[in-house]
Design goal:
mainly beta, six-stranded parallel sheet, 48% strand, globular
Length: 174
Amino acid sequence: DLGAATASITKNTVTGLGPTGVIAQNGIQVAYGATATVTTNTVSNLIYTGGTYGSSGILLYGSEPPYATAPSVVGNTVTSAQYAVVLEAVSGTSLAPLKVTGNKIQDAQFAGVGLYSVGPGSGSGNDYIDVASNNIQNTNPDDGIDACSDYNTISGNTLINSTGESAIHLDGTC
């Protein structure tokens, strides 16, 4: 039953291999219709050197409403990951946006928080994600928050030393 997998993923420590060309590791991945609350985990050392792809500290992929409990990423610490927190092809609703809040992110290469829409023609594209009260430091060379999706709220975040592109990047062509 697609989407039947649910979980509370909390208080785990996940440490990757560090820089490796063998596999683009993801620390915590919730995908293909599954849903989870991902809270108070510590995730680190996820760097893929093989090109094309990147490793993610926390990846939510391929889930859309209706949800019994909407996915959320709250109060985690992610360090040294190419993408710290990524929501790709994941959406909430206008009345119940997904939450990415209170996370501490440091030393992400591509994005501290990446919001990537399912895109036109996919049936949605309306993501409804609330990105708030995150502390994001030292994203290099890319963005602190990379929002390539619609109907999101980005507020109350602290972004320090996003040296490459933008602290907050909203783009309609991603």
